Amino acid sequence: MARIALLEDEIALREEMAVFLGKRGHVILQAGTLAEFWPLLPGIDLGILDLMLPDGSGVEAAARLHHFNPRAGIILLTARSALEDKLVGLEGGADQYLVKPVRFLELAAFVDALLRRMGAGWRLEILHHRLLGPEGFGMELNTHELTLFELLAGTPPGQIVTRRALIAAFGEAWLDYDERRINTLVSRLRRRWREGCDQELPLKTERGAGFSFGGTIQRS
């Protein structure tokens, strides 16, 4: 899953793309002008940008997006198919240049390829209480599960979050808390992730110490 910004002044096309990509598990942010696009820049993983806009160019949007996130993917859309136009777009930082009308399956293939190349990792959406994996699967979290992943996100991959620190983050007293509740919480998380996407959650129990996570978790 990724946070994708759609910058397209054709409202119908933009909304169709948003629905299509949203169904594939992505968070979609929409804008019809550069002025609407600028506030969306922080946290964008990939931009799908119209080349010709009412108040400027998609090339300008691509440059500004790369300023905020040098690793962001860029796909430019345009009705102009001339080689010169493609070169302008590619030289302006675009990874792909698609000519309208856009075939959505082709667009999705380019999006997936870019995200694989970018190495999109784990993301913790705190506001929405959701953990998102590199392959796009997302899982809703309850309050205690979210607290665990917030602590894990604040430590380097493989570093231990102790049971004592976790219990304190729960707002509980160390001596009064039944640690079997944590074991149940972790077991339930692993089972739900495995059942949801047929993969193992890299949440490791460090015997006698606490828990670690085999990957970097970005908070948003």
Fraction of helical residues:
40-55%
The CATH topology of the largest domain? Rossmann fold
Total helical segments: 8
Portion in beta strands: 15-25%
CATH class of the largest domain: Alpha Beta
Number of strands: 14
Give the C-alpha Rg.
21 Å
Measured distance between first and last alpha carbons: 13 Å
- Stretches where pLDDT is under 50 for at least 5 consecutive residues are none
At the fourth CATH level, what is the homologous superfamily of the largest domain?
A: Response regulator
Give a quick account of the main beta sheet: strands, pairing sense, barrel closure.
5 strands, parallel
Strand order of the largest sheet: 2-1-3-6-7
What does the model show?
- By secondary structure, this protein is of the alpha/beta class.
- Helices cover 40% and strands 24% of the residues.
- The protein has two domains: 3-118, 3-Layer(aba) Sandwich (Rossmann fold), CATH 3.40.50; 122-219, Winged helix-like DNA-binding domain superfamily/Winged helix DNA-binding domain (Arc Repressor Mutant, subunit A, Orthogonal Bundle), CATH 1.10.10.
- It has helices at residues 11-23, 34-37, 58-68, 83-91, 104-118, 143-153, 163-169, 180-197; strands at 3-7, 27-31, 46-50, 52-53, 56-57, 73-78, 96-99, 122-125, 130-132, 138-140, 161-162, 203-206, 210-213, 217-219.
- The mean pLDDT is 87.
